[in-house]
Amino acid sequence: MEKKKPQITIKNIKAYIEGNSKMFLSKVGFQAEHLKEQISYRMLQCKDDCIINKKCKYCGCEVPGKLYVNKSCNNGERFPDLMSVKEWEEFKKQNNINEQELHN
């Protein structure tokens, strides 16, 4: 797999700050349950490549921080943008997502 190098742009700097600050808030217990589940879902989707390489295979940004960013860098190929509670509940139903896996 070719490793992508992230471009230094305002958008990517903003995403880096967003992802890492949300990751910190999650670690200290300030994250809504529906967002925790979505981050867990993203981690499961990326467990065989991005998590292992600590870099997103789509954009090259650092993982896990990138997984906390609202906007998906893969245009929904692996996972969508972070969703509201209602949207997330519907997504889980439509995609038969096992909640037990998300909480492990």
What does this structure look like?
This protein is mainly α and 104 residues long. It has one domain. It is built from five helices and no strands. It is globular. The model has no long low-confidence stretch (mean pLDDT 92).
List keywords for this structure.
5 helices; mainly alpha; 104 residues
Shape call: globular
Mean pLDDT: 92
**Structural class per helix/strand content?**
mainly alpha
Distance between the termini: 28 Å
Tally of helical runs: 5
Residue share in helix: 40-55%
Order of helices and strands: HHHHH
| Low-pLDDT runs | none
Count of domain modules: 1
Q: If you compute it from the alpha carbons, what radius of gyration comes out, rounded to the nearest whole angstrom?
A: 13 Å
Major β-sheet, in short? none
State the total count of DSSP E strands: 0
Tell me the β content.
under 5%
Task: Report a brief summary of the structure.
This protein has helices at 10-27, 33-45, 50-53, 85-94, 99-102.
Topology summary:
Layout: H1 10-27, H2 33-45, H3 50-53, H4 85-94, H5 99-102
